[in-house]
Write a structure and sequence with these properties.
Elements lengths: L2 H11 L5 H13 L3 E7 L5 E4 L10 E2 L4 H8 L3 E5 L4 E10 L2 E11 L5 H21 L5 H5 L7 H9 L4 E3 L3 E8 L7 E7 L3 E9 L3 H20 L4 H16 L5 E9 L4 E7 L3 E6 L2 E5 L18 E4 L5 E5 L1 H4 L10 H11 L8 H13 L8 E8 L6
Antiparallel strand pairs: 1-2, 1-6, 2-3, 4-5, 5-6, 7-8, 8-17, 9-10, 10-11, 11-12, 12-15, 13-14, 13-16, 16-17
Protein name: Phosphatase
Keywords: Hydrolase
GO molecular function, one term: phosphatase activity
């Protein structure tokens, strides 16, 4: 049995809350590791938070100014040689199907460090990531480690709805982020991919706090229920519309943008029912994609939704944004507006999709200055590559 297989088997047999302990023991025994630390990316994507272990806890480190953050951002191992101490620190991203979870840091004696060892550690990080996702069904340890501050109850409900923060397949890459991360109102995003289609949903429930969270939970789960029943896109919107109207009788509604991408051709079916909007960068050109505005979900009984269509081409980048982004106000009362958003989209052209939402939200924060964020700000980025030729 080789070293990697031995560690993978130990992880599969471990108690959910003891994954880090198992990895630490295995890497110490097999590779002579002196220190093994696991950090998870916090909800605001500002820090890497330590997973508490029985031997004590490491410190949180900033995501954008640390060796661990470099590994997380570049999504490749980052090696720091500490010649005076005779050790090498290897920081490795823990990522599953494009969803960036955190970073594993391993300190090795200099005589045990080699490129082959780093390759082994990368395989072990993949196994660890899979086990963390499974373990989260049975323990709160890894979810708690992602929190730099306590979540409001509404934010807790919203984050539990999300599919992840990024996803990568051969045909596309996705990344999304919500602000404020720890006190969310009603914005949400969702996606699901099958062998033939990718469905992306951006929702914005009216109101604040628990009321907004309950409304958004109802709408998102109604859309999922319709999607999983195999209904066409327009019927998904209609079913969710009926569910919201039946509960609230028109007193509350949910703005939604629904898109279904055909992976083989790039054909896109769209239902726009409210405030979320989308921009496209194709080459050097950035433009807003406009569709026929239809009624938000739940405003009236038995609303009929009509889908529209367009096509994406390999190399296209789509940016979805809620009104908390493009209506963000500066201290001089100037809106962020489409022009500033187009500039931000052009400026992030070299970043991968997973990093674009954070960069755009930082631009929004710079524009806003000291003004408080009065609404959720949601950004979702989709890079389209198309299906590779077989």
């Amino acid at each position: 049995m080789n070293k990697i297989t031995s560690v993978e088997r130990a992880l599969r047999a471990a108690e959910p809350h003891l994954l880090l302990n198992v990895v630490r023991m295995a890497l110490t025994e097999e590779y002579g590791a002196g220190r093994v630390e696991l950090r998870m990316a916090d909800y605001g994507l500002k820090n890497l938070q330590p997973v508490q272990a029985s031997e004590g806890a490491a410190e949180a480190v900033p995501l954008h100014d640390s060796p661990e953050g470099r590994a997380f951002g570049a999504q490749e191992p980052h090696v720091v040689h500490r010649d005076a101490a005779g050790v090498v620190d290897v920081h490795l991203p823990v990522t599953i199907r494009g969803d960036r979870l955190g970073v594993l840091s391993v300190r090795l004696p200099v005589d045990r460090y080699a490129p082959a060892v780093v390759a082994d550690l990368e395989h072990i990080c993949q196994a660890l990531g899979h086990e963390i996702l499974v373990a989260e069904r049975d323990t709160d340890l890894y979810l708690m480690a992602r929190r730099a501050a306590r979540l409001t109850l509404a934010a807790e409900m919203q984050w539990q709805l999300l599919p992840g923060r990024s996803c990568t397949r051969a045909e596309f890459s996705l990344g999304a982020q919500l602000e404020p991360a720890y006190a969310i109102y009603g914005d949400n995003f969702d996606w699901s991919a099958s062998s033939e289609h990718l469905t992306v949903t951006v929702t914005n429930g009216m109101g604040q706090g628990i009321e907004a969270a309950l409304l958004t939970n109802l709408a998102v789960n109604a859309l999922r229920n319709a999607r999983r029943a195999g209904l066409p896109l327009a019927d998904q919107a209609s079913l969710a519309d009926q569910a919201v109207y039946a509960q609230y009788g028109g007193r509350a509604h949910v703005a939604v943008l629904l898109m279904r991408f055909e992976l083989a051709t790039g054909e896109v079916e769209v239902v726009e029912a409210g405030s979320p909007r989308v921009w496209r960068r194709r080459g050097r050109q950035v433009e807003e994609l406009t569709f026929d505005a239809q009624l938000p979900l739940g405003m009236f009984d038995e609303t009929v939704y009509v889908p529209e269509r367009f096509r994406v081409e390999p190399g296209d980048r789509l940016l979805f944004a809620s009104d908390g982004v493009y209506e963000s106000v500066s201290p001089s009362q100037e809106l962020f507006t489409e022009r500033a958003l187009a500039r931000a989209l052009a400026a992030t052209g070299l970043l991968p999709a997973a990093q674009v939402p954070g960069a755009v939200l930082r631009a929004v924060a710079d524009h806003r200055g000291d003004s408080p964020l009065g609404d959720d700000a949601l950004v979702l980025c989709l890079d389209w590559r198309g299906r590779p030729a077989t």
